[in-house]
Amino acid sequence: MTSRRDLLARSAGAVAVTLVPSSGAARVNTPREQPVTTVDGRVDWDALRAQFRLEPGWVNLALFYLASHPKVVRDAVDHLRAQVDANPLSVPTGMALPDGPTGWPRVRQALAAYVGGRAEDIAMTASTSIGLGVVYNGVVTRPGQEFLLTEHDHISHRTAARLAAEKHGNKVRLVSWFADPATATADGIAAAVGEAIRRNTRVVGITWVQSSTGLRMPVRAVAEVVRRANEGRSPADRCLLVVDGVHGLAAVDEDAAGLGADVVIAGTHKWLFGPRGTGLIWVAPDVLEQLRPTFVSFISGGGAAPLSPGGFLAFEHAFALPVAVALHEQLGRARVATRITQLSTRAKQGLSRIRGVTVHTPADPELSAGITCFSVAGHAHQQVVDHAAAHRVRLSTSTYTRIGTAVINTPAEIDTALNSLDDLTR
After folding, report:
1. Looking at the 3D structure of the chain, how many domains does it have?
2. What is the pLDDT of residues 133-159, one digit of tens each?
3. Which residues contact 129 (CB under 8 A, 6 or more apart)?
4. Distances in Å between the alpha carbon of 215 and those of 50, 208, 295?
5. Three-class DSSP category at 312
């Protein structure tokens, strides 16, 4: 059996070259296209930043919304698009990256290696929202069973659960895992989940990193609580732990398949820098029989493949995913997570020193990741975003105003954003 290390090394080969869409050949990097890692294995963050075509003169601190494509991904997409345009019949059997064939088997293999699972446990989808719909609509339920979520979960998560519940005679119950995200603790969250689970709870739906608060849920601790709640239950009554993992994947140094969840859903076009319109569903093998397919699938094979919505889509995007995975493996997941933590810590500490600013994301790096949420006294969140934009700083807003710290951001950019906010409060 091929080892995970071998799989990652194989996929990393796609990043060691510069793709030439017109010829399909590979050539050596030029001085303007420096590798993102140095000879001694360190990351050249400036070289990584140069991979992106971000608008000059702007500080982009909302890159978790929809990632800009790095050059290696753009080149891979262009390379594959030329093949589809030249011969559309190449899609099912003949598409290739410069280092070899690509298609659903290679995509699933690369993603499985990255999340720490098996290729057969991966279903493909176009986004987190679609993945959530596939999972909640597919869970085998009985009338009267419930889906347990919180108001802090994304509206896509809550809506997917509600629509499925309405179809199958179930209900959605919204609770709170904490009184204040800034002061939440892992033990407190796990205890709250345990207290909320009932005999008719079929799904506990949580978010790995909440886009509304920036809080990172202690998934392992929650998984242990759910495991204890399942003791003595039949498979039809088992409580499934479903995780919206989009803001944890490639931002946190964890194997998503090793968190203890039953299902993890994530778009790959955010922190992973994957091609836009790509996503995955990882399903634990022992719960696969409790999920029904919702759509016809165009991916052959058993396991989780039948859960993948079929149809014709942007295959040049989907089949370029191994290049994005390879880029992150070249960077190193631990180094990526460390840089994100350093930048977000800088943001949180700087915000806490500005008069009138309240930080709502936990200061503890174990309970946060790349999203920092805050509010400014006397100012609506959109006013804060607009003020920052006047200083050529891009922030975003949901429940609160948000700063997103991607690996391609710099400490100087964080300081620029903080200075614009300090100016607002004077």
Report:
1. 2
2. 999 999 999 999 999 999 999 999 999
3. 156, 160, 267
4. 30, 8, 33
5. coil
